[in-house]
């Protein structure tokens, strides 16, 4: 069963059905930890920790020397940190990938809807252009009226010319 929520990665395993809240909390922890490991503050604190560790174990500050020069215990701590950091970072990346997939699907849906809306509006504009093209414009009506007026004036001129050609006895 696929889980579409943004906060949960991938699929649920069958034997852990009741642990959704814990998975989500652990996922948020992994993302926070991975985000913090990528900051200059983390690097600065790690550098201070290593310098203090080496200083105490080389000089024997306060009479302490629990990890002599090859610093085997420090290497063990770094190995342990790396063995936990890598899976946490991968978990955070997987959760981000799942969120990206959901966003991409939403973007595609929105793009398809926008495309459908634009196609509809293009058809509507084309229909309006056709309707306006079929309508008589003001200039067209004026030109038609002018033509009719000219035809009427020409007809009147012909009638007057005919009347002038008639003799006075024909007029009675």
From TrEMBL:
InterPro entries attached to this UniProt entry: DUF1003
Keyword Transmembrane helix: yes
Superkingdom: Bacteria
Transmembrane annotation, as ranges: 42-63, 69-91
Keywords: Membrane, Transmembrane, Transmembrane helix
Pfam family, one: DUF1003
Protein name: DUF1003 domain-containing protein
Species per Swiss-Prot/TrEMBL record: Raineyella fluvialis
